[in-house]
Q: What sequence folds into this?
């Protein structure tokens, strides 16, 4: 059940990503420029109430798709930051352990050299 919901959510997110990618392209701009021009010249007279409604609805949906994409990006960045933090903590612990071991070895080496010199 959870797997099915995850697949469905992934499909919805992929669709939102595809729409956002298309809406952020110059092709989208050109298509809209042509459609708006045709609508304004041939389909509806000034003040274009239906066109205004359509454009307003489109803006609502496009802004929603952009926010979905931003939320996904933020979640990805947070997961990456958490992973990086964990990795850095592990690396710091490893470096601290190695530094302590090197200090012990250096101290022991110095002690042996001093003892050998004293003999």
A:
């Amino acid at each position: 059940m959870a797997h099915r919901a995850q697949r469905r959510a992934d499909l919805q997110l992929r669709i939102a990503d595809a729409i956002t990618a298309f809406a952020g392209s110059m092709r989208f701009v050109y298509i809209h420029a042509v459609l708006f021009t045709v609508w304004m010249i041939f389909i509806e007279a000034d003040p274009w109430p239906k066109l205004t409604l359509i454009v307003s609805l489109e803006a609502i949906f496009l802004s929603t798709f952009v926010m979905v994409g931003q939320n996904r990006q933020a979640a990805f960045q947070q997961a990456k930051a958490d992973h990086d933090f964990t990795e850095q903590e592990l690396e710091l612990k490893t470096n601290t352990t190695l530094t302590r071991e090197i200090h012990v070895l250096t101290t022991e080496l110095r002690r042996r050299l001093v003892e050998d010199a004293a003999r």
User: Anything to note?
Assistant: The longest helix spans residues 49-118. The two ends are 78 Å apart (CA to CA). Residues 44 and 50 are 8 Å apart (CA to CA).
